[in-house]
Amino acid sequence: MDRSRRRRQFNREAEDEKSYRERFRFPLELDDEKKDGESHQSETVDDGNDSDSFIRKEQRRTLFEETKKPEKKDSSFRITKARDIPSAVHGTKKHEEPDEDGVGGPIRQKPLPGASPLISAIHGTKKEELSRKEISYIEADKKDDGIREQGYTSPIIEGLKRERLLRAKKEQKRLEERRQREAREKARYDDPYNLKGKQPATIRHGQETAESEEAVPVQETPEKKTTGGTASPYNVIMTPYDKKKRLNNRKIETKRQGPKYTMPSIHMLGSDRTDDYGEADGALAGQVVGAFEAIGIPAEIFDYKTNGIIGRFGIKLDRTFRLSNIARLREHLGPNLPFYSFRVIAPIIGTSNIGIEFPLKDPIHIPFSKVFSSSSLKLRKNDFKFVVGKTVDDKIFSYELQKAGHTLVYGNNEIDSSNAIDNILISLMMNHNPNEFRILIASDKPYYEDYKNLPHLFQPQKSVMDPDVLSGLFKELNDRHNQFRRAHVRNLNSFNQRVSYEARKSVIAVVIDDLSELFESNNPDAVRTIVQVLKKGKPLGIHLIMKHTRTDVKIRFEWLQMMQTRISFRDEKSNIIEGSETLTDGNDMLIQIPTSNKALRVNGAVLPHDSKQRVFSHLKHIGG
């Protein structure tokens, strides 16, 4: 048999001997174990060379006697326990054990020096008593060395004791100051004018602090005088009561005391009486029907609308008439209609009929006071709404400046375009104070002389040719952009909701008159500022109102895309709004707003010069 095979061969005798030595004997086998052990020892004992087997036999004899826990002897190297380790459930309380009389009761132990009981979740701890007890225990422990147990003194324990002593003194000092403060407040509440002739609170406070210093030597705290004539300590660690009181005082200091700005009265705008213009001319209606019959199209007038300047007949045609023939219809109707200028609306919004708009022979001006008092602006809300005039169907056109974005006023009508800008600005100044609305005018025309010295002006009026005309606006744009980014907001309303009243930003309306002059002049700084405002000025509360009177000077297409609201007067080429070639000369405009895909025909309201001066004088007087 080879060597490896012999090594792996199973030896039953050796395995039995090994299992006999190592297996655990149960208590019932103890008596048999001794007998079997003696007999087995006589059989297997050899010369005494195998020391391991001898030791295992000795262990087998004394197996259950040596498993007992040995008693530890007293040693000078053993560290005595500094304090009882509290249990996670019961804390430092022991289980109840019967006393000498057999009656069970809790074992009360003397508290260790510097030890503090656990804080209850319901009742808490009486901090004043605890701090005094801790101080007395620790100081007694320092004076009497016999209280300490004999043995090793740990420096860690001594450091913990010193920290607890300082913490207890601070707590006692804070409670004493709080008690004094409550006493002073109670005395001031009972006798706010010191009518009882008691000792002043400051003297009483000095005596109390002197007594407390004699009892417990603590460090003095700085005091500050309040408005009531009493002194109160400044606590580094403020209680919830102190924080609430301080917050209430701060709110009282920053509270606005009544209105400091009065809005102009609606009566300053003048009378709002208008003549009756709602009836249609019967002879004129018959001529319109005859014009349709002359070209072979049966028609019927079912409606008439007017705002005093432009009238509109609602005409119902035959069902077989196609609206695609409207272009040829204009050419054939022109010679037969009694108007020198007319405009065909196909279809009227909300119906399947067409309309014929024409100027009235005797127009009636639309008073601005009537438009203002009949719209939602009479409620004097802070919504930045403005009015321009009335539509053809005698409805007031009002819109929000923040929705309108940047506005372009296009056309060679100098007077009426300036009148439209006046309506926008005066509408906003009537309902908003200088802290909410500002105006920047970049023009040297005499028309804007009345706006000088107004409190709403962002900066003094300058010419468009001035290189620094928009430098202040560019700085304001960058400042607002950085502040909004740090405040994590995107628009002006969100920013004003997060900051205080004094830190709120105002809406700025920038009037540029004339944009065509700016294009022809060499002023790159102003052009660069306008581009930046067009790109990111709307959410920051900066809105452009640009006037362009020269139709021969082209406007860049990129600029037109960023001008959300467009107002166009009569234009033969219809460069800005399609259909503006059919308008009449004068107070007649088309307005394209971003929330509508169809332009509205609007006639501007007129504000008399004396009413305008009354409003401006009131604003200048209030502004100081």
Write the layout of secondary structure elements.
Elements: H1 3-7, H2 12-22, H3 30-44, H4 51-61, E1 97-98, E2 104-105, H5 127-143, H6 155-190, H7 201-215, E3 223-225, E4 231-233, H8 240-254, H9 282-294, E5 299-306, E6 310-317, H10 326-333, E7 343-345, E8 354-359, H11 368-374, E9 385-391, E10 396-400, H12 401-404, E11 407-410, H13 414-431, E12 437-442, H14 471-486, H15 492-498, E13 507-513, H16 515-520, H17 524-536, E14 542-548, H18 557-562, E15 565-568, E16 589-592, E17 600-604, H19 609-623
Parallel strand pairs: 11-14, 11-15, 12-13, 13-14
Antiparallel strand pairs: 1-2, 3-4, 5-6, 6-8, 7-8, 9-10, 9-17, 15-16, 16-17
Helix pairs in contact: 5-6, 6-7, 14-17
* Spans of at least 5 consecutive residues with low confidence: 40-61, 102-108, 200-205, 208-235
CATH architecture of the domain at 368-623: 3-Layer(aba) Sandwich
- Assembly state: single chain
Output the CATH homologous superfamily of the domain at 368-623. P-loop containing nucleotide triphosphate hydrolases
Average pLDDT confidence is: 77
Largest β-sheet summary: 9 strands, mixed
Which descriptor suits the 3D outline?
elongated
* End-to-end separation: 126 Å
Number of helices: 19
Protein name: FtsK domain-containing protein
Domain FtsK: 393-578
InterPro entries: FtsK/SpoIIIE/SftA, FtsK_alpha, FtsK_dom, P-loop_NTPase
Subcellular location: Membrane
